[in-house]
Design goal:
This protein has one domain. The protein contains three helices and six strands; from the N terminus they run H-H-E-E-E-E-E-E-H. A six-stranded antiparallel β-sheet has the order 1-2-3-4-5-6, covered by helices on one side. Strand 3 and strand 4 form a beta hairpin.
Length: about 120
């Protein structure tokens, strides 16, 4: 499934338990894909899902030692960070959302540079 489709699932998951479950499944799958494509060491990252309340999609996060990526109804945001306990990190970078429809290949290349 394409990342834009996963964000679309998130946008209709509020008040929709089946939609939320589908979004969770696909978003977590995509975050595992990122970890695999970047050959991340399992000790250097975590993947989690914050379900939120019934009115929202929740959000899925891959938190690496040097970056984190969050997928939710607002889109796909990533930022650099300093360890898995850093929840503030650098500035927000939107791949999808807030008028951005970013290139996934460039996104992976950027994350590769950060982890090198």
């Amino acid at each position: 499934m394409k990342l834009t489709n996963i964000v679309e699932l998130a946008k209709v998951a509020g008040y929709n338990a089946e939609g939320k479950a589908a979004f969770k499944k696909e978003a977590l799958w995509y975050l595992r894909l990122i970890a695999t494509k970047l050959a991340l060491n399992k000790r250097d990252y975590s993947i989690r899902f914050n379900a939120g309340g019934e009115a929202v999609s929740g959000d899925a996060t891959l938190h690496h030692e040097k970056f984190y990526v969050t997928i939710g109804e607002q889109g796909v945001m990533w930022r650099e960070c300093d360890g898995q306990k850093d929840y503030v990190g650098g500035g927000n970078n939107w791949l999808i959302g807030f008028g951005r429809e970013g290139n996934e290949d460039e996104f992976f290349d950027r994350l590769r540079l950060i982890t090198a």
